[in-house]
Design a protein that fits this description.
This protein is of the alpha+beta class. 51% of the residues lie in helices and 14% in strands. It folds into two domains: 40 residues; 137 residues, no CATH class. Pfam families: DUF4825 (PF16107).
Length: 186
């Protein structure tokens, strides 16, 4: 057998082996990693704040910007409808499910997280309403700013966000206190 034929056979075997490694090992690991990342985006304790920074805007009147923001935040796996009230500088997110179907703890943590993100990224948004079948909540920017004792846009740096917002959500007393003082049932 000529040397050229041996090289061709070697390259074919090498190519098939490499294809098998990519398809059988590397791609499944990447798929698993991507699936885990998407699951984490539904959990306010693990959501990646940097993934939503592109939705930063001075004005809340851009409906596609706000809807795209909320489609990337926790609770986005629930069917939703958005309404903007530019005269009131208020956005409303209507979830077509109940709090019990999602889980009360997950809802409370997600509402804290989502409203803080919205106020931190949308400069003139003054109020958020979250409606579920049978329950509604309202959150005001001024209350959230008072809670964090900071200009909300300053929280979006990853380390600051993790320290002042995200990590605190694992403390149930913190969540209950935020709920008592900031999340107003309508």
């Amino acid at each position: 057998m000529k040397a050229r034929n041996k090289i061709i056979i070697f390259l074919i075997v090498f190519g098939i082996s490499l294809f098998g490694i990519v398809e059988g090992v590397i791609k499944p690991k990447m798929d698993k990693s991507n699936k885990q990342y998407l699951e984490n985006q539904q959990d306010p304790l693990f959501h990646d704040i940097e993934s939503v920074l592109k939705y930063k805007n001075k004005y809340m009147g851009d409906a596609s910007n706000i809807s795209n923001l909320f489609y990337t935040l926790p609770l986005s796996d629930s069917e939703t409808k958005f309404e903007l009230f530019p005269d009131e500088l208020r956005a409303e997110v209507n979830y077509r499910t109940t709090v019990l179907d999602i889980g009360e703890e997950k809802v409370k943590k997600s509402l804290i997280y989502n409203s803080t993100v919205a106020f931190a990224l949308i400069d003139n948004l003054e109020a958020m309403s979250f409606s579920f079948t049978g329950e509604s909540y309202k959150v005001l920017r001024k209350d959230v700013e008072k809670w964090y004792e900071a200009e909300l846009s300053s929280l979006t740096e990853k380390d600051t966000w993790n320290k002042l917002v995200q990590n605190k959500l694992s403390d149930n007393e913190y969540v209950r206190e935020f709920e008592r003082t900031i999340l107003k049932k309508e």
